[in-house]
Design brief:
There is one protein chain. This protein is α/β, with parallel strands linked by helices and about 210 residues long. The protein is built from 10 helices and 5 strands; from the N terminus they run βαβαβαβαβαααααα. Helix 7 packs across helix 9. The protein is globular. The model has no long low-confidence stretch (mean pLDDT about 85).
Amino acid sequence: MVSRIIIFDDNQERLNSVAMLLNLSPLFTCGGTFYNAANLVADITDSKPDLVLMDIDMPGIDGIEATRLIRKHFGALPVLIQTNFEEDERIFDSLRAGANGYLLKKTSPERFLESLTEALEGGAPMTGSIASKVLRYFAAEPQAKKDYHLTDREKQILSLLVKGYSYKLIAFECNISYNTVNNHIRNIYDKLYVNSATEAVSLAIRERLV
């Protein structure tokens, strides 16, 4: 099934290039491009997307506030934040607002499309350097470890998620199938009492599970 993606970005050239990339892929179609988030609720209601690509810096309502509005009005609709810069506070504010992942705009087209699939499947795609920043940020606040009864394999996979690995790379690293990775991740969600990879990664870092 083809997934509908909509894009919010105040750079018209960027809007056009990402829309073209999506429409050239057999897995995605661009369901709409928007220069700002002034009419975000109506735009999303009308376009009925499966995922939202959100620029972090836009005039008026920025990507962080727009993500909060999406969480308020559209629940679990996946949101991927995109930016040109690795600003620590903006990264953490985006994730706290409910973003499912955070990618640099210089991400390669292949990794970009892979990240969309990952987010649609419940993953939390992040550029490796950004994942490292998240790790350092939460590591500054030590907390007592709880025992979630994760197996060694589940701990390994959770550790790779924290490092920003895609499901495909996790499968390669662990020498297991993509479907097996999905099964392990579902078990991890159940044991951690979370519903997404973003929550799993945040919990793992905050409580130093890996």
